[in-house]
Amino acid sequence: MSALLGLIAAFLLATPALAQEGGMGAGAPGGSAPPLTVSRHAVTVLEVNEDSRTVAVLERYQLVNGGDEPFVPSTTGSMGPMGLLRFGLPRGAFDLTLDPQIAAHDVIQVDRGFASLMPLPPGQTDVTYSYRLPYARDTLDLVATAVYPTAALWVLAPADFAVSGPNLQTERVVDIGRQRYQLLTATNLAAGQRVTVSVAGLPYTPRPWLLDETVQRAAAVGLALFGIVAAALYAWRRPPLPERAGGVP
């Protein structure tokens, strides 16, 4: 999968913003530029593992510090968690893998994602991270969060899946390596806005109910409780041992 990661990164670097994408996002009070914005947030469905029923996802941010000074995250400032460099994660995400830039600094778990103490110099900084999501049927709802005002959200998914979501517009199908990807976009997202990306057509074969993990766990708990009850009944109904006469063994 490392080769695919490199191809997708190269595609995003080589592909300019679409003509209809706005400036630096929405949500700035009074028309002033917020200190941190995102010029492009790309969410890519990398691969699907039918055996483990998981989807691998890559997120790439083009972060922009519009100020003249570095943005230095802090845990002790007056802004609290808002003073950290924050990123979103869908519910249920696991196996989080950070790029070396983020991994070189402390990472803190926050509501709906994680935060980093990585400072941002003025201008643009690109960061990536990946994770896995479990799915329990042939459709997965992936929630992409615009933590900062975002000019463009890009969603890349294999072309053989049906992908949709509110505010998402289908742009085109692109070839990345040997894989065909469909590109969907949304523009000018306000800070805190969430977009639910529905991915349908995932490989899914219902398991026999005896092999279902939930059924197996329930059966194991039931057998354990049955054993405890049986042992208690046996101890209660067992007749007492006869007393030895005169205390002589």
What's the gist of this structure?
This protein is α+β, with helices and mostly antiparallel strands. The protein contains 3 helices and 13 strands, in the order αββββαβββββββββα. Strands 4-7-2-1-9-12-11 form a 7-stranded mixed beta sheet.
Descriptors for this entry?
single chain, 249 residues, alpha+beta, Immunoglobulin-like, 2 domains, 7-stranded mixed beta sheet, 3-stranded antiparallel beta sheet
Topology at a glance:
Elements (H helix, E strand, L loop, with lengths): L1 H13 L21 E14 L4 E12 L19 E4 L5 E5 L1 H4 L3 E4 L2 E4 L6 E12 L4 E7 L4 E9 L3 E3 L4 E8 L2 E11 L4 E7 L12 H25 L12
Parallel strand pairs: 1-9
Antiparallel strand pairs: 1-2, 2-7, 3-6, 4-7, 5-6, 8-13, 9-12, 10-13, 11-12
